[in-house]
Design goal:
26% strand; 27 strands; eight-stranded parallel beta barrel; six-stranded antiparallel β-sheet; alpha/beta; 491 residues; binds alpha-L-arabinofuranose; 9 helices
Amino acid sequence: MARLIVNTDIRKGKINKNIYGHFSEHLGRCIYEGIWVGKDSPIPNTDGIRNDVVKALREIKIPVLRWPGGCFADEYHWMDGIGPYEQRPKMINTHWGGVVENNHFGTHEFFRLCELIGAEPYICGNVGSGTVREMQQWIEYITFDGESPMSSLRKANGREEPWKLTYFGVGNENWGCGGNMRAEYYADEYRRYATYIRNFGGNNVYKIACGPNSDDYHWTEVMMREVGTRMQGLSLHYYTVPGDWNNKGSSTEFDEMEWFTTMKKTLYMEELVTRHSTIMDRYDPDKKVGLIVDEWGTWYDVEPGTNPGFLYQQNTLRDALVAGVNLNIFNNHCDRVKMANIAQTVNVLQAVILTEGEKMLLTPTYHVFNMYKVHQDAELLPVSLECGEYCVGKETIPQVSASASVDAGGKIHISLCNLSHEDGVDIDCLLRGSTVSTVSGTLLTASAMNAHNTFEKPENVKPEAFDGASIKDGNLRVSMPPMSVVVLTLD
Ligand code: AHR
């Protein structure tokens, strides 16, 4: 029996809806095929963007979308992606399969996508191989409302009004693919580039600096010391890789030990967020700088027979648990984590959608985002959880992960993950400070660890109504099956 206390009379701040953000890069079939099919495609589209994908993404209320990379961002020259399609120069996507990029999906197409799905744009600029001037001009092109060379160019390309652009990344992984810089060098580069990111008209840019690679605490220390509140956000990248980088493991063929290791490595996000936040707290006790986890998710070996540079992988019930656990961690750290972006939206890494020609399917991860959307912009309720250990071999981790919030209408939502591949769990839940009388819920589970959706069976894994929760004498009792994600609504 596990015991959960939800302190409904304590509010710990808003869970920024941007924690439910996504990331889409010019990588494999994410942008091309997955999102952009072109205006002349037989696949139903709006201005070249797939209608089925737009509809699905609207449903999960994606608040913010990061683009164009990733590693691609630091070799992307935005001026190649504007103007008539036939005049746009081609380039080689050297990071991702060496394929030819025709630049048909550029700035105008990205803003149209954001408009269609109702997400705020988050653009990542080029520090590694770009110039300050190029970055400055991109901001001017997008946001300047007066008469200027860049705004005239935008108008000539068919867009009269400036767009609103809040989130801008000053480079990506500049410790690696974005220029192999040292923290000390990048900190100075950040200061230089960021100086020229201007706020035009009513637009106010929230500048996000390249942050650490997983446990590189030195990077965070240097950035906080040398840049501090000149940045509004500091990014963090951490992927759940069950094996090692040379042999990451299959997305669908794995045993119990690999399931367990995946859960354990996902829980490591808690330590990363806590330790980076501790460093940030020393320099920024008022928590003005947000921790922006703008790349997270599972990374496996690619599906057999697919291009190794395209990072195409299947998505099983295991990925659903990874998503649920990570989102609980971000919710519980919402005082510092202001945004997170799962990698990547369609057909790449832990995608919420997979496509094949005109076909589309929703992955188990998609369903978790749909179930958890109730937490967006809700007030975090602190929880304390006592649960048994989940053991495989000699290793142990906590069996349950949880977070809770109260929305603007006063409804309480609790999201729970049972990590064990074989044991159910009963949870006795005390809702301290409130009396609730009704509970309803949604459950995502399956009988096999590797259950997943295919184009032949797209609804093999899908949420169902949950009947394992009841309220007696004001107390909530929840009975969860193994390998499950549950979201409860209490009134
Ligand atoms: O998401 C795939 C890649 O992972 C990104 O391009 C890069 O930033 C990271 O290393």
